[in-house]
Amino acid sequence: MNTTARAPAVQVRPKSSGGMTYMRRYWTLYLLLALPLAYFFIFKYLPIANILVAFKQYNITKTVWQMQWAKNNGWEFFIKAFSNRDFRYAVRNTIMLNMLDLVAGFPAPILLALLLNELPYRKFKRVTQTVAYMPHFLSWIIISQLALQLFAPTNGLVNMALRGAGFNTIPFLNESWHWVATYVFLGIWQSVGWNTIIYLAAITGINPELYEAASVDGAGRFRKIFHVTLPGLKPTIVVLLILSLGRILGSDFDRPYALTNKIVNDVSNVIATFVYTSGIKSMQFSLATAVGLFQSVVCVIFLVAANTIAERMGERGLM
Known about the structure:
319 residues; mainly alpha; MetI-like fold; globular
């Protein structure tokens, strides 16, 4: 007689699709993404077709597909822009001001974050950080009026103090290179506190055991900064540097437009203000689109080049 117990048969169920199971489980998250995706598609991707205006004769009564092509196989307005002396000066000024912002302004939030991280009193640290990033919420119109009250050549507070102390006044706003220095200084003052938040967040992600190990090895505060904090900040610094290099030919409109005046127009006229004055105000929309397209293409080239260099140097980069 066979007494061997027979094992129960295992029912094999057909495996359901992993993707369908995932979608059924997390469909609400994708539903929440529908609105922002629709926003980007409607307001960011569909208007890309209008870059054809740069290659066509603009006509407000026609669609972009009905407009006639510009002369010189569509390159008429690019040739017109590069033959314009004001545009060449605008490109020069944009690169110069952005490079100065990068050299002087990029290390500033890193240094401030390191200093705030070393403060032993948390309340003082929070107050200092709050005061530092408050200028970020001021518009450049307000900042320009503050600059006028402080740095005006005759009745500015700083020059009045210098004159009262027996020193010569400084033409902060009515001499080209002094204006450039004032422009860069105000840019750092306005953005340094806000950018510091990113680095402080990155510092909090550094493993505290690394600091404890450095203390055991006898490292002081400066050695901890150079051998623990800065290496921990390196990935964040590289990513933000790549993004900054990608904007090397980009320019804000409000900052140079609010701070400029006719005396320093030779250094304050940037691409954004050129597009406004020579393109939009003069109703040369094809010219304005051509300049904007050139600016965007160059920014993408700088961004990709900086990212490639970072990856070849062993950093993660953006992609």
